[in-house]
Amino acid sequence: MATSSRSVANDVSNVLDFLQESDLALYVNAVDERPDRVTFHRHDPTAEFLINHSHPDINQYRRWVEVGAYSAVLPDASLLQLTYDIAGGEISGHRLAYIPCPFDVDTELLRSEPILDVVDLHRTDEPLLRSPIRFDFDPAAAKPGHPAAHMTINGMDCRVACVAPVHPLRFADFVFRHFYPTMWSAQAGFFEAAPYRHFGRSVLADDDRQSLHLMWDVHAKSSA
Questions:
Q1: Distance of alpha carbon 116 from alpha carbon 94, whole angstroms
Q2: Residue 153: exposed, middle, or buried by beta-carbon count in 10 A (0-12, 13-18, 19+)?
Q3: Whether the Cβ atoms of residue 148 and residue 206 lie closer than 8 Å to each other
């Protein structure tokens, strides 16, 4: 069945709406749906998305907060960013990022004050050594050492091959299962559908299979 920007936008919206309604996100940005891309509405669409092309740092995190470059803000001020490209009835690319807040912020204050003000209150604190994690799908750039689907963590040259593109529910399941297990357990009924949500077939190349990689059943179907 062909994949459309509308169906992808619905999948992303369903996940974001649930996160907000279940208090797993402080707030979410509206989904920006175009014929070839599904992403998030930025508060300042004219601002450059990246300060530079190095691994994201505290300044880059602050810029994303400042211009509203995120899909959701989590209860600890961490960010989720979900962007999908669609072409020819298929997912042609995606960028799914979890950006941990680099500070141990006052989570109660986050519920009453703008996130940027709260973050700036902590700018003189010792930063937390937590790396952003990004799931990318870029088949046009695939080559040895650069898998079509991969997870990047800790540095720009770290690309751990993934079996396939990642569905937004599976991405949310990964984030909450591994970084917010108590929240994940409380909403296990919602996340239990994640293993049955897929975007495309396996894209692992022979070279990818020779090293450690992330694998899941891309053919699994719900028994419901």
A1: 27
A2: middle
A3: no
pTM equals 0.95
What would the pLDDT profile of 111-151 be if each residue is shown by its tens digit?
999 999 999 999 899 999 899 999 999 999 999 989 999 99
Residue burial 42-75, b: 16+ Cβ < 10 Å; e: rest: beeeeeeeeeeeebbeeebbbbbbebbbbbbbbb
In the numeric block, the tokens 């419901």 are attached to: 224
Label residue 50 by pLDDT band (50, 70, 90): confident
Percent above pLDDT 70 for the chain: 99
Classify residue 162 by its DSSP letter.
Answer: B
Are 172 and 15 contacting, i.e. CB atoms less than 8 angstroms apart?
Answer: yes
Cβ contact 40:69 at 8 Å? yes
Measured at the alpha carbon of residue 84, what is the angle toward residues 65 and 177, in degrees to the nearest 5? 70
173, 185 in Cβ contact below 8 A?
A: no
Phi, psi (rounded to 5 degrees) for 181: -60, -30
Spatial separation of the C-alpha atoms in residues 185 and 177, rounded to whole Å: 8
User: Percent helix, strand, coil in the chain (nearest 5)?
Assistant: 30, 20, 50
